[in-house]
Amino acid sequence: MIRPYSSQDKEELLELLRLNTPQYFAEEEEADFIEYLNKHVESYFVVEVEGKIIGSGGINYFPDKTARISWDIIHPAYQGKGVGKELLQYRVDYIRRNASVEVIYVRTTQLVYKFYEKAGFTLEKTEKDFWAEGFDLYQMKMVL
Fold this sequence. Notes:
This is GNAT family acetyltransferase. The protein is α+β, with helices and mostly antiparallel strands. The protein has a domain at about 1-100: Gcn5-related N-acetyltransferase (GNAT) (Aminopeptidase, 3-Layer(aba) Sandwich). The chain contains four helices and seven strands. Helix 1 (about 10-20) packs antiparallel against helix 2.
């Protein structure tokens, strides 16, 4: 089940992030995620199975007719099982209902950019050690 994020989900989401650190996130990104949850959530969703959060991801909107997919996190036990794909497609469909959005961006790393490429995003630029040492920026876009 995919549902909107509630502030009561915060601790469970932090644990989800920790389960993916250091494989997919640098330790110092936890503070950024906390700030995001506290101040920058616009549309954020969680995936639940039997009352347990196994994934999450958000959307942020910008005045230049763009949206950004943000903070995708999937429980390691559920990676490669279609959860991330379902959550991403849910958000792309959600964004498509907003007629003012023309382009969707995602800023990810070299570790998972192929996932977004398979979903139809194209690589726009890269920047070494952007997120933290060893975590490069891969900025990708999808034109709607």
